[in-house]
Amino acid sequence: MTTKPPTPEYIFRGHNGEVNSLTLAKNDQYLLSSDQNGIIFVWDMKDKRSIFKWQAHSGAILYIWATDDIIISQGREGLLKIWDFTLMLQGESTDPKFQHLVESLHFCKFSSVSFRSKVMIAYPKDRDTVVISEALSGLPLYTVKCDELGIGACMSLKLFVSKEQLMLLCGYESGKTSLWAINDSKANMIWLANNHVEPVLSMDVNDEATAGISAGADNNLVLFDVNQNDHRVIRSTQIKHHGVSDVKFRSDSRIIATAGWDSKIRVFSVKTLKPLAILNFHRASIYTIGFTQVDDNQASERDESGLIIDKPKNYLAAGSKDGRISLWQIY
Questions:
Q1: I want to staple 237 with a disulfide (CB 3.0 to 4.6 A). Which of 16, 123, 189, 273 is the partner?
Q2: At which residues are the WD repeats (predicted)?
Q3: Radius of gyration from C-alpha coordinates of the chain
Q4: In terms of DSSP H, where are the helices of the chain?
């Protein structure tokens, strides 16, 4: 008996343009998505409906990110905007709290992380320079610039925290990747590696901040250590088709997913980097993916004392050039 191919559990429809970015907020209660027309949607994950939308930018949005309180968005027009998410949910304001200019010529997306009760943000200043600032004040704190000859433009960023230390991964047009430690006074480069032969378009770090994953315009998928003074590849594999727009760890660090230019979502085991599934629904390139957990009253079990507890389901969301967002239940 043949096994039926996997299908999405739900399709979010509402965007009239390419879905370029998505993120989860408030303990995954809400899904936020943005498109090439500059519009951001907020979706309720319980009933899968759009709560509201607004015109955030005059043109395409490159990236969005959210905490419980704020939303940060980056437009192709070169503006980085910060929005008060709490006020928006209350229907009080759709005006940005703060905005400033960033370099968007090379499609490099910003990266944010919560660090010491502050939201830190890394964004491109020019072709090969990255600025790290405190998001709410906009005050630039550090400048990161790689002087390697032929390094090319910075194409992707990943800001993260490891052992109370602010860290930054930079992926470049040349295919190289650098890791930086952000100290109180300056940024120090820990290593520079050449894991790709074409631009590095996306990177992620697991929740434990022990491993990173990179992908890009070539077909290499590289898992590497981020806790070493010297660069060390843990394992790597090659995807059948070139071009990955986005790559993400699931929170339990057991699986990785990639968003393919060939319209396919691929799921890999972190332990082996062997493919576990190919999710095929969209009619055009996948631009963005994200893992989430959704509580389901039907997915419940009893604990040791006999009490019934809700068991959340693992989901993967993907946004595509075709304007649709698919939601998949996986493992």
A1: 273
A2: 12-53, 314-331
A3: 19
A4: 85-89
Alpha carbon dihedral 250, 254, 258, 263, in 10-degree steps, equals -100
Q: What are phi and psi of 266, to 5 degrees?
A: -115, 135
Specify the residue for token string 């590696």. 193
Q: What is the mean pLDDT of residues 5-26?
A: 94
Measured between alpha carbons, how far is 172 from 328 in angstroms, rounded to an integer? 31
Of residues 79, 2, 6, the one with CA closest to residue 280: 6
What one-character DSSP code corresponds to residue 321?
Answer: T
Q: Which two tokens stand for residue 271?
A: 């332990």
DSSP state of 94: -
Angstrom distance (rounded) from CA 107 to CA 154: 9
Average pLDDT of the segment spanning 120-131: 90
Query: How far apart are alpha carbons 302 and 190 in whole angstroms?
Result: 48
At residue 156, the 3 state secondary structure works out as: strand
Residue 230 identity: D
Nearest alpha-carbon partner for 314 in 24, 56, 19? 24
Burial category of 177 from C-beta neighbours within 10 Å (exposed 0-12, middle 13-18, buried 19 and up): buried
Rounded to whole angstroms, how far apart are CA atoms 79 and 2?
51
> What's the CA gap between 157 and 7, in Å, rounded?
32
Tens digit of each residue's pLDDT (9 = 90 or more) over 146-189:
999 999 999 999 999 999 999 999 999 999 999 999 987 789 99
pLDDT tops 60 at residue 1: no
Angstrom distance (rounded) from CA 266 to CA 255: 10
Question: At a CB cut-off of 8 Å and minimum separation 6, what does 133 contact?
Answer: 120, 121, 123, 139, 140, 141
Tokens of 3: 């096994």
Provide DSSP, 29-77: TEEEEEETTSEEEEEETTTTEEEEEEE-SSS-EEEEEE-SSEEEEEETT
